[in-house]
């Protein structure tokens, strides 16, 4: 309070007075048109590219690398390998990882088991006690069995494509090579494919569908790993199925090479050979031919 009274007395006794400023001394502020002020990201970027800071940064980027940085790279960075493990160790590690993930996915295993058992029972009940001398019926059964293998793997492609998100993170951290990932995805499905083929072949047919499973399923696994996205994998897989179906049977001689690279053709042959090469089936076919020749 005393300080306030002292200041007030000194202020009243002073000769200082507030003077009105002249028109010349008044600071005039002009309004800037709003159209010249950048308001969007593109306009800010355009202003920045015309600035001296941007020009100096570009000169530094396009200029030569400092010798000390080059020396540090050659001394410390170049001796470090891109991947800690070699190709085979990295591939085997990826295979073990994928097998472990598959075994932990109990919902997927239960779903595949139910589907395989139901389809095996469906085929076995539909073609129960079929006539072995009817070659067209036998080929139809075999073709349906092999096509089930192909279409069953093609339906899993979205799941395989979704699993690649985890690999992208690991690849950026140099955990696995891309080739190791592609190979491990195909190899890790062999035990599951063998189990599915064994269960279904016991229920539906007398032949083992292992080679058909590996030939067809591995192709779609490869597509899911090699394709950049699902929009590319789906059309290629459907064209592959069309190609396999179209060239899996009777074709001209000049296109026979397409037949021998078709995995479905190999699957049908593997089904057909054990089912038609048994002594009982040969005896049945022989008796049918003798009966037909005597009646005519």
List the helices and strands and how they pair.
Elements: H1 2-13, H2 41-49, H3 52-62, H4 67-77, H5 87-104, H6 106-126, H7 135-154, H8 157-162, H9 164-172, H10 178-187, H11 190-203, H12 210-226, H13 230-246, H14 256-260, H15 263-276, H16 279-295
Give your account of this protein's structure.
The chain has helices at 2-13, 41-49, 52-62, 67-77, 87-104, 106-126, 135-154, 157-162, 164-172, 178-187, 190-203, 210-226, 230-246, 256-260, 263-276, 279-295. The chain is an all-alpha fold and 296 residues long. The chain has one domain. The chain crosses the membrane at residues 106-123, 135-152, 241-261. It is a multi-pass membrane protein.
Distance between the termini: 138 Å
User: Which stretches are poorly predicted, pLDDT < 50 over at least 5 residues?
Assistant: 1-8, 207-215, 281-290
- Mean of pLDDT: 71
Q: Can you summarize the main beta sheet? A: none
Multimeric state: single chain
Q: How many helix segments?
A: 16
Estimated helix fraction: over 70%
The coarse overall form would be elongated
Strand content: under 5%
Structural class: mainly alpha
Counted beta strands: 0
Q: How large, in whole angstroms, is the Cα Rg?
A: 39 Å
Order of helices and strands: HHHHHHHHHHHHHHHH
Number of domains: 1
Domain ABC-2 type transporter transmembrane: 95-202, 218-272
Organism: Phytophthora megakarya
Membrane topology: Multi-pass membrane protein
Transmembrane segments: 106-123, 135-152, 241-261
